[in-house]
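Summary for the funding panel

The consortium committed to producing paired sequence-structure records for every protein in the target list. Below we show the first two records in order, beginning with the earlier of the two.
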Amino acid sequence: MPTPPKNPLRYNRVLLKLSGEALMGEHDFGIDPKVLDRMALEIGALIGIGIQVGLVIGGGNLFRGASLSAAGMDRVTGDHMGMLATVMNGLAMRDALERSNIRTRVMSAIPMSGIVEHYDRRRAVRDLKDGDVVIFCAGTGNPFFTTDSAACLRGIEIEADAVLKATKVDGVYSADPHLDPTAEKYDKLTYDQVLDKKLGVMDLTAICLARDHGMPLRVFDMNRPGALTRIVTGEKEGTLID
C-alpha cells in the first residue's frame, strides 16, 4: 500500500514530460543508464505516495527530424523516424522503472505489435488507477506535432491534474539564464503571457491546447533531487502556467 504523504497532495494524477536530451546526461548522444535510474527513483517516490504518473518522452537524444528536414529529407519521414526514437526511449525507461519494481506499461500512438501496446485511453486510465506508470510513445502519431503537444494532449485525455515539464533550468525565465545573467525568473504566468512574451516554453500548439482545456503546466528542473515530490505536495518549485 502507498504511504500517505505528510503534506496534502496538490496533484493526484500528473503527466510528466521529459525531453530526450535529458536522457543523454553528460553525453552528446544516446541514453545514460545513470540518468534513467535517477529518474526512476524520482518517479518511484511519487508512486510510493499514491500519485498516478503518465509519462511522455521526446526523442531528440537519438534523432532530430527537423535538422535533417533542413538538409532536404522529407519532413514526414523525419517525423516518423523521430516517433520511433521516442519508442526506444520509452522502452529504456520502462526497463529502468521495472528494475525498480515499478509496474510500467508502454503505449504507442502507432501500432507496433509485439513491441509495445497500441494507445488505448480507457486502458491507460485503468492502469494509472491501479498504480502503474504509463509511458505514451510516438507522439500524437501524426507528423508536424511535437512531443510537447503530445504531452498536453495525453494529459488532457487522461484528465491529469497538471502537465509537468522537466527542463535543465528551474523554471521559466525572461531570457536564457545560461546566456543572460540578468534574466528574470517567473514564479507564475498565464498562458497568454507565455505567448505574448514569446518565452518558448512549449510550441504554440501545445500552449494553446493547454489553455483551451484549462490544463495547468509546471516547468521545473529535473536535476534538482526531490523536485517532483515537492511539486505534488504543494511546495514552491519551478514556474506555474495556468
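The next record, for a separate protein in the list, is shown here:
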Amino acid sequence: MNDPRPFGTFAPTGITRWVIDRTRGLPGSWMGRRIAMIMRRVVMKSLKGQPLDLETFGVRMRIVPYKNVCERRILFTPQYFDLDEIKLIAARNKGDFIFIDVGSNVGWYSLLVARKVCASSRILAVEPQPEIFDRLIHNIRLNPFGTIKAVDCAVADKTGELTLFLDPLNKGEASLKIVNSSQTDTIRVPAVTLLELVNREGFSHLDAVKLDVEGAEDLILDPFFREAPASLYPSVFIIPDVADRWQVDVRKLLEGKGYRQTLQTRMNLVFERA
C-alpha cells in the first residue's frame, strides 16, 4: 500500500536532490546517458527503500524506484522518456479526445497527456499488477486533471482470468507471454479484449492507443482487427519495437488496416491512420 502521508513528505533533499537535478539536465547523447546511469547508481544505494515525491513537467508523482525501470527513468531522466510519443498523442486533442493507455505502469503517459488535453477528454489507464496499480491510483489522485480512469485488468486475446508473467527484478515488465528473465513470477489477473474494453466504456471512437505489454501486442491487435468495426480503429497506435517477440507481424497487420509508420524512436514505433 502507498504511504498516506501528503505529497511533499518524501521530497528529495541533499545529495539526492543534487543528483536528480543534474541527471535531469543531461543531454541525450551516449555520454549524457552514461553519466546519468553512474550518478543514479550512487543515489539508489542511499535511498534505503523510501519513496520520493517529485513534480515533473507539471505532474506530481510519488516514485518508488526499486525494481521498476519505469520509475527510475521518471525519477532521474524523464527528458529521455517517450516525450515525442506523448507530444504526438496530445496533439490529437479535441473536445471528445479519447486515449487508452494499456500497460500504464505508474501513469507516466496518462498523466502527461492529461495535463495537455482539454477537460472533456477521456483517458483510460489500464494496469493489471495490483502493486503497480496501487501506485497508479495514488499518482492520479495527486493531480487535478479529472480525465483519467484507472482500470485494473490485463488486455488480451480473450476475456477471463489469465496468467501474467512478472520479472521480479523489474515490476514494470509484465506480460501474457513469458518475460525475458532468468527468474519469473506469475499471478492470475482478470483480462478483457481491447474491443470489449472499448465497448464497456461506451467509446464511439479512439484517438490514440498506447500498448506496452512486453511482446504481447500481437495477442491484443490480431483479434481486435478481426472483430472491431473500422469506426473504432484508433487514429494513432504506439507500440514497443519488439518484433522478435511477436508471433504475428504487427507492422504488416497495421499497414493492412490503413496505417503507416510515421515515427520510430529508441524504444517505440508510431503508426497513424488517415
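Regarding this second record: Residues 30-47 form the longest helix (18 residues). The chain has a mean pLDDT of 94.
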